[in-house]
Specification:
484 residues; alpha+beta; Nuclear Transport Factor 2, Chain: A; 7-stranded antiparallel beta sheet; 5-stranded antiparallel beta sheet; 20% strand
């Protein structure tokens, strides 16, 4: 029994030991980015107070059909920001005179980029519209289209912003982009996505199962080899390290495999409730509103309505740190809805709209989610959202944007818990340690895993060389297990 355990552990170790070293080493990139990568200086859009008084109804604009409309301030005057069907760049018209404001969307993007990056002095090399995800702006960032604003700085600062919602998509430097490239292509084999997705899934699955089997056989050996003293040298070091990291190896591999297949078989992307509308349907502005934080046309299952938001505060509730984006809490606001036909207020609020977008006529009252949680993780990006319970599972709706931000089934909840706690070690947060300390712990564990696997491969090669040196042509030799 002992010999079989040892032989299989040895065979698997030679095959998947290198994979373990590669994945553990590439996994170190995440804490490295947390400690050394650039972080935004703000997590919420800039405060904007829109003057509604004196604004004309948008039906006088030279536009027939729109996909989105909101009031914004540009050059200290109220302007209509118009999203046209099938057009990425938004156009701006003075809300009083109707005059078109050229290059306004790019100007707004540059303003947002400076707001989120904190860069006030450096020049801007370029501001270009991006309508697809790519290597430096992957799909995890959610928002499209975005403006890619590149600054004239030695570190190659690039900020991606969405002018439709004034949100930050991502912030990069050349250093961060290099590390992201390494992580994507080594840790997740991204270069195989697309035509060779099946190959990618097969390689990672086989390697993860092999690592789990190797770790299981290894711990079986440790329990079977009952020695009063630990052996010295490389073998003793390998066993000591194995005692320390066998559980993290199983946790990282199992949760990583669960995450891989859940992501591969789940539907990605956001569900929206947007369809083009005729400008002539908007015949009135919200009545009694002179100034507001946000005024936009809301295309909802309840009809086409004006949504007016009055912010109580719009400052981030966290101090910017390496992980503040994970714990940010969005400020509370008050909202009201008005008819576009006569401007009268309707008895609806964001919770009602969220329920309608989720396809629920009745049900438990939705609850506001102002920060990321175990049910609604940072990968979903959008805040605040409304949590809606339905027979299909949990739904999280961004009522302001009219977007279904996430749908969470029981399987999704299990996978999210597994990935957060077993892969990213967020259970350690309950011990009162900081995010930086948690990343430090995970980095140390990863390095110990690399050492354990490296020592194991070195022991294997040493034993093979020793056998080769003593083997006689007439004899057959095999790698034998250590004596108990």
């Amino acid at each position: 029994m002992l010999a079989k355990l040892y032989q299989w552990h040895l065979r698997l170790g030679v095959i998947v030991g290198i994979f373990l070293i590669v994945w553990a080493a590439s996994g170190l990139i995440h804490p490295l980015l947390s400690f050394t990568g650039i972080q935004p200086v703000a997590f919420t859009p800039p405060v904007e107070s829109v003057r509604v008084e004196g604004v004309k109804t948008p039906s006088f604009l030279p536009v027939q059909v729109i996909a989105g409309l909101r009031l914004v301030m540009a050059e200290e005057q109220a302007h209509y920001q118009v999203t046209l069907p099938q057009k990425a760049e938004r156009v701006y018209y003075n809300a009083i005179t109707g005059a078109w404001l050229p290059n306004a969307d790019a100007a707004r993007a540059k303003h947002l980029a400076r707001h989120y990056s904190g860069e006030k002095k450096a020049g801007i090399l370029s501001a270009t519209l991006q309508t697809t995800f790519d290597q430096n702006y992957p799909s995890i960032n959610k928002y499209l289209p975005v403006w890619r604003v590149a600054f004239d700085r030695p570190d190659g600062l690039v900020v991606y912003v969405d002018t439709g919602e004034d949100k930050l998509g991502s912030i990069n430097t050349s250093y961060k982009e290099t590390l992201l490239w390494l992580f994507q292509h080594i840790h997740t084999l991204k270069f195989l996505e697309g035509r060779f997705e099946g190959v990618r899934l097969g390689i990672i699955t086989c390697a993860m199962l092999g690592i789990v089997a190797m770790a299981g056989l290894g711990i079986g050996l440790l329990w079977t080899l009952k020695r009063p003293k630990m052996p010295k040298g490389g073998r003793g070091l390998h066993r000591r390290l194995a005692w320390v990291v066998w559980l993290p190896v199983l946790a990282f591999s199992g949760s990583g495999l669960f995450h891989l297949w859940t992501q591969a078989t789940s539907e990605t992307g956001e569900s929206t409730q947007i369809s083009p509308i005729a400008m002539t349907t908007i015949s009135s502005l919200p009545q009694g509103i002179h100034q507001a934080g946000d005024v936009r046309l809301s295309i909802t299952p309840k009809g086409i309505l004006w949504r007016v938001e009055s912010p109580l505060s719009n400052t981030p509730k966290t101090i910017p740190t390496a992980h503040a984006h994970h714990t940010q809490r969005m400020a509370k606001t008050t909202t009201a809805y008005f008819r576009v036909q006569d401007g009268t207020k309707v008895p609806l609020n964001d919770a009602d709209i969220a329920l309608a977008i989720a396809g629920q006529d009745t049900g438990p009252v939705p609850t506001l989610v102002p920060m990321f949680s175990p049910e609604y993780g940072f990968a979903n990006k959008r805040l605040p959202v409304w949590r809606v319970e339905s027979p299909k599972g949990l739904m999280f709706v961004d009522a302001k944007a009219g977007v279904m931000a996430a749908q969470v089934s029981a399987l999704d909840k299990a996978e999210l818990w597994s990935f957060r706690n077993l892969h990213k070690g967020q259970f350690l947060d309950n011990l009162g340690i900081t995010h930086q300390q948690r990343d430090g712990v995970l980095a140390v564990v990863a390095m110990l895993m690399i050492m354990m696997s490296g020592v194991g491969l070195w022991l294997y090669q040493r034993k093979r060389r020793a056998l080769a040196a003593t083997r006689r042509p007439s004899e057959g030799h095999s790698l034998s297990p250590p004596k108990p």
